[in-house]
Amino acid sequence: MNLLITGGAGFIGSHFVLRHVRSRPSDTIVVIDALTYAADKALLDPVMEKITFAEGDIANLPLLEAIVEKYKIDTIVNFAAETHVDRSIQNAVPFLHSNVLGVQSLIELCKKHPKILLVHISTDEVYGDLRDGEAPFTLDSTLRPSSPYAATKASADLLLLAAVRTFNIRVRITRCTNNYGPHQDRSKFLPVVITRAMLNQKIPVYGQGKQKRDWLYVTDHTDAVELVCSKGEDGKIYLISASNEQENIRVAKTVLDVLKKPHDLITFVADRPGHDWMYSLDSSSMRSLGWKPKVDFTEGVQEAIAWYTLQLEKIED
Ligand SMILES: NC(=O)c1ccc[n+]([C@@H]2O[C@H](COP(=O)([O-])OP(=O)(O)OC[C@H]3O[C@@H](n4cnc5c(N)ncnc54)[C@H](O)[C@@H]3O)[C@@H](O)[C@H]2O)c1
Fold first, then answer.
1. Average of per-residue pLDDT across 177-184
2. Is residue 124 annotated as a catalytic residue, yes or no?
3. Domain limits at 143?
4. pTM, full prediction
5. CB distance 34 to ligand 1 below 6 Å
6. 100-131 burial code (b ≥16 CB/10 A, e <16)
7. 78 within some domain
């Protein structure tokens, strides 16, 4: 494979790059990343000699064209996106740029190079939320995004599906639940809980912490994406989930228990506007390709804690 991985210096993309280089060392890998606040290029240091890294924006079509032609790219995996819901509530413009115009630029690229397979990483947040007791979202569920972030991701999915129909380009879409693990930007929920607990600082939890998220360890997600690249069908959507729904307060307490810290570090703060109540996904489309998650939640949290501990030690040095 000659692979272009976008957003490869971010949380999930960096794990995908590291694992792909190890499992398929003879593939050509080019990573493009705009190096926003969420990126950390150093995450790729262990494989930097085996990949080509380009700092750049996926909305820059001439740059994408030059990369595709120079490296004879046959597959693109698109992790590049603005991803922080709170930031999208403050200002949606960067989300429209990366998540919608950026994807349109990938579509234009694929129209010119119709043999390219584009695997696009979307999210379960395109479906909005569920109330307690409601059945998990399926491929037939209506798109009903709640946040500007989710609305841009849903827009991109619709643009891609329309391009499949109108221009016959090769696209596969994945929609995954909340990921956790090492490499995530420290402004996201689980890294906030872990790092603040380690520093004995108060841990802010929205509302009463009763919202439920369906947690998946990050490398279980990247393994699923690999399988979609190799065994998926063009034009199809794959829903990825561990069916591991947990209240945010439960997640915070799991971290505190692993770190042997008191639960009273948790402090409730005013809820996020439009905050989704619960996510849950029927992942039979993904499991039909032979995928299942491998990492147990507590074990995954321990891995994440070990990594953030190392990062804090580096900062203190
Ligand atoms: N984190 C999750 O829980 C989760 C769950 C489901 C789906 N997703 C999706 O997975 C993908 C990756 O998420 P993540 O958590 O790794 O995000 P992240 O914010 O950690 O990383 C995104 C990366 O994309 C880069 N980027 C942003 N805009 C760009 C642009 N215009 N051009 C090039 N690079 C750009 C950033 O610099 C960053 O390195 C996103 O599409 C997201 O919607 C994430």
1. 96
2. yes
3. 2-185+215-243+277-295
4. 0.96
5. yes
6. bebbbbbbbbbeebeebbbbbbbbbbbbbbbe
7. yes
